[in-house]
Amino acid sequence: MASPESDGETRFIALMRALAVDPAARALADDAAVIPFGHETLVITHDMMVEGVHWLRGQDEADIAWKLIATNMSDLAAKGAEPVGVLLGYALGPDDARFALGLGEALAAFGVPLLGGDTVSAPTGARSHGLTALGRATSDPVPARSGAKAGDVVWITGPVGGAMLGFEALRDGTAGADTTAFRRPMARLREGRALAPIVGAMMDVSDGLLIDAQRMALASGVTLAITTARVPFPESLPLARRRDAMTWGDDYELLFTLPGDQTPPCLAHAIGHVEEFRGDSILLDGAVPQGRLGYRHG
Amino acid sequence: MASPESDGETRFIALMRALAVDPAARALADDAAVIPFGHETLVITHDMMVEGVHWLRGQDEADIAWKLIATNMSDLAAKGAEPVGVLLGYALGPDDARFALGLGEALAAFGVPLLGGDTVSAPTGARSHGLTALGRATSDPVPARSGAKAGDVVWITGPVGGAMLGFEALRDGTAGADTTAFRRPMARLREGRALAPIVGAMMDVSDGLLIDAQRMALASGVTLAITTARVPFPESLPLARRRDAMTWGDDYELLFTLPGDQTPPCLAHAIGHVEEFRGDSILLDGAVPQGRLGYRHG
């Protein structure tokens, strides 16, 4: 989930990479671990959410639960995996019954069972929850961020910026605004399964289109060239905020590449193409984008 | 891990049980979820540790990492599972490099790879970490807390109370005291695998011998009768503190039952027997134990 890395986080992740030498870990550079298990392949991911970072203090606990499930389902979607179950690490809070309600709604919506977890009382300060999602791969190989090839077309399954608009409306208490995209994101599980057998690279857009596209480019050793005019945005987004929308994240659409002559088996938008790497991993409208590529939430 | 349930926790777990209807969840009443996957069986568990609850503020970060791995390995041991990998949910702290060092030591000691996870910055207050451990079952059926039968003998793989003594020495800064049992618990993975095919019931003792024995009794619908004089304790434990040692936890020995005529295939101590349920789930020296059966840490 969201928020770019601090220096401390970058250093810690480097330490973890040195430990995560098993090929299933995919060098911690992918949306999920991919583990051969029996005659099948297990896909597993773990995300944390922290109060004040990933959700607004005072936000409806039911929405927090929904989002915890949805973001992890999105990681499974990026692998074309079918959900098998989730484990919840929960810090007790002001309205545990609302959290349980939202959790139940999300489990039903995504068709995934709760299998276990742990509950703790945090004595002070910000609460945090963790969720582990388990899935079953439906394709071989399982899609990765690497795999984009020069000549491929870059696609996205839906608009970016809706979560940002929803977050701002919620933060500002805007009357009558639709905040669903921020509060109750969906995960593209069906699309992910349809795409998994044919994509070059695939990932979900959680931290911002530009930063995630850059990650795909770096993992693939190519340049991703994106054209703003082709990127889908919500109708209500002002033109001047298109760059914000491309760096905000939390929309959980799937970003993927296909050979130039191939049409996706689901609704998607061609937003750019893959070029051989010539010094820059990402180009926006033909130029290297300046400033932040991913946005800090909260 | 440790600390008895608060009212809020009890209520929340009841809400979660209502959601966790999948048989693999084992009604959230076991040490781990057990999931048929391919032609094998997956065992998966998730534990959280909170600063000030599960570890002392200022404690060596390397030991915190060790314990996070060890406690989850112990859950796998209770299922006779072979570790497959772990995912870490980590809140950045004052000494991430020490944490990484201890994590690496624990991964090597337990022979388990780091497969993935998430890193966050907690803005304020107590930090918490989560760990998910994945294992492969080595027996069919996979041992459960239920399965103790009247006439069985109750066994434990080693002493209880060592972690309590270590915790107190660490808290009090006792010079020359050995605090290893609290800081660097082991998990009985080898013993768990040897026992899994033959036990009636099995679990790890994480929250206190008496409360965990009671859980086994409740899950099995029987009475567990334990004799204090047969329970192994550390040599340095004063006699007057045997009851404390039986209610403290964090020792991560395996508690299991075998038919009366069977000897365990590993070092273990017979500490009682299983009776038909006649109104009380646990008897200590022939009487219903009064007061707390599990101890709050920290």
Notes on the protein architecture:
The structure is a homodimer of 298-residue chains. Chain A is an alpha+beta fold and 298 residues long. The first copy, chain A, is 29% helix and 23% strand. Chain A folds into two domains: 7-136, 60s Ribosomal Protein L30, Chain: A (2-Layer Sandwich), CATH 3.30.1330.10; 153-284, PurM-like C-terminal domain (Phosphoribosyl-aminoimidazole Synthetase, Chain A, domain 2, Alpha-Beta Complex). In chain A, helix 2 (61-78) runs parallel beside helix 3 (96-110) and helix 2 (61-78) packs parallel to helix 6 (189-195). The longest helix of chain A has 18 residues, at 61-78. The radius of gyration of chain A is 18 Å and the shape is globular. The mean pLDDT of chain A is 93. Chains A and B meet through helix 1, strand 1, strand 2, strand 3 and helix 3 of A and helix 1, strand 1, strand 2, strand 3 and helix 3 of B.
**Distance separating the two termini of chain A:** 12 Å
The pair of chains with the biggest contact is: A-B, 70 and 71 residues
| Secondary-structure content class of chain A | alpha+beta
How do the SSEs of chain A run, as a string of H and E?
HEEHEHEEEHHHEHEHEEE
Count of domain modules of chain A: 2
What global shape of chain A is seen? globular
Strand content of chain A: 15-25%
Share of residues in helices of chain A: 25-40%
The total count of helices of chain A amounts to: 8
Oligomerization category of the chains in this entry? homodimer
Q: Biggest sheet of chain A: strands side by side, in what order?
A: 7-9-6-10-8-11
The largest sheet of chain A is: 6 strands, mixed
CATH architecture of the largest domain in chain A: Alpha-Beta Complex
Radius of gyration of chain A: 18 Å
Mean pLDDT of chain A: 93
Q: Spell out the CATH superfamily of the largest domain in chain A.
A: PurM-like C-terminal domain
Given as residue ranges, the uncertain stretches of chain A (5+ residues, pLDDT < 50) are none
CATH class of the largest domain in chain A: Alpha Beta
Tell how many strands the DSSP assignment of chain A holds.
Answer: 11
CATH topology category name of the largest domain in chain A: Phosphoribosyl-aminoimidazole Synthetase, Chain A, domain 2
